[in-house]
Amino acid sequence: MDTLRWASSMRIHFRCFYFIALLVTILSGCAAKSSTPFYAPGGGGWNTCKGVHPVLAHLQGCQTNDWMHDPAPITRKNANDKVGNQCLLELAANYGNLNVFRQLLRNGADVRLCATGYAQRFREVWVTNHCDYPKGSTEEFFLLLESSGVEISDKQGLLKTAAIAGCPVAVRFLAARNVDMNWAYEEGLRPLHYVVNMASEEKIETARILVNLGANPYLRSQNGESAIDRGRRILSGRASNWPRMEAVLSTYTGNAQPGVPADRPQAGAR
Predict the structure, then answer these.
(1) Full-model pTM
(2) How far apart are the two ends of the chain, measured CA to CA in Å?
(3) Which pairing describes strands 45-46 and 82-83: parallel, antiparallel, or unpaired?
(4) Range of the domain at 100
(5) pLDDT value at position 32?
(6) Residues 137 and 242 in one domain
(7) What is the CA angle 229-185-130, rounded to 5?
(8) Three-state secondary structure call for residue 61
(9) What is the CA radius of gyration of the chain?
(10) Which string of b and e fits 111-133 if b means at least 16 CB within 10 Å?
């Protein structure tokens, strides 16, 4: 009787072991088929590109040592592909790869086939994450979109993004397209209000260009604070570059004097 019980118990254990082994094998196969690339910091690089769209694999550096300049595997057949819900143009903008973005457009990629409103976000993503790196890339990026018939839908909104990011080249580009450098956003904040939260080299240069283009550092927000007052409150005594930022703001030579009341946010402000 004990022998029978032992044999029965062993059969049950064997079946459980077999089931677990089979389950592990199935799950491992699924993981291999759905593997996505991930970056291993510290020199590990991209571990795998198995099953990834070839253009995305190129953007992630899987297929080339010089992913910023080498030709990507783009054809007229795949230029309008999507990875998940993102078009390839969107991915190229996110990765800051102007070369791939240019190749996609040359092969017939259509911004209108991307997510609704992404034509504006293309520019906002670029200004925020890749402002003029490499040098000249931002202006070319904007011109590529314009030449494809994609106008800037919200110029004032893009100016705000450029002010927050500290992207002087974007400010220059927008100035040539008749953007108001004293536009009132929510709470009466002006472009300069968004610049003076930091005193980095990029922010100082952005402030200099804005002031040269007529941005008034003395216009007050709805809480009564001008851009120069805001900068003094945030940066004075904390940022070693504040005296330089203050000197730039003080070069304003327009007619408006300190204490001018703020306007209400203008239509379309955000």
Answers:
(1) 0.74
(2) 83
(3) unpaired
(4) 53-151
(5) 41
(6) no
(7) 90
(8) coil
(9) 27
(10) beebeeebbbbbbbbbbbebbbe
Can you give the pLDDT at residue 240?
86
Beta carbons of 107 and 74 less than 8 angstroms apart: yes
Determine how many CB atoms are found less than 10 A away from the CB of residue 180: 17
Q: How many helices (H) and strands (E) does the chain have?
A: 12, 4
Task: Enter the tokens of residue 55.
Answer: 């253009």
DSSP 153: S
91 vs 37, 59, 151, CA distance in Å? 14, 8, 20
What is the average pLDDT score of the chain? Answer: 80
C-alpha 218/C-alpha 227 separation (Å) is 6
Is the CB of residue 195 less than 8 Å from the CB of residue 207?
yes
Q: Which of 183, 170, 246, 175 has the alpha carbon at shortest distance from 212?
A: 175
Token duo for residue 87: 């078009």
* Confidence band of 160 (pLDDT split at 50, 70, 90): very high
Give the DSSP H/E element, type plus range, for residue 32.
helix 2-33
pLDDT of residue 41: 31
For residue 1, being part of any structural domain is answered with: no
Same domain? For 138 and 161 the reply is no
If we measure between CA atoms, which residue out of 43, 49, 83 comes closest to residue 64? 49
Q: Give the type of residue at 187.
A: E
Structure-block tokens of residue 264: 């209400």
Distance, in Å, from the CA atom of 203 to the CA atom of 244, rounded to the nearest integer, reads 11
Is residue 160 within a helix (H) or strand (E), and if so which, with residue range? helix 155-165
Q: What token pair was written down for 68?
A: 């910023």
Last residue of a domain, one of 151, 168, 200: 151
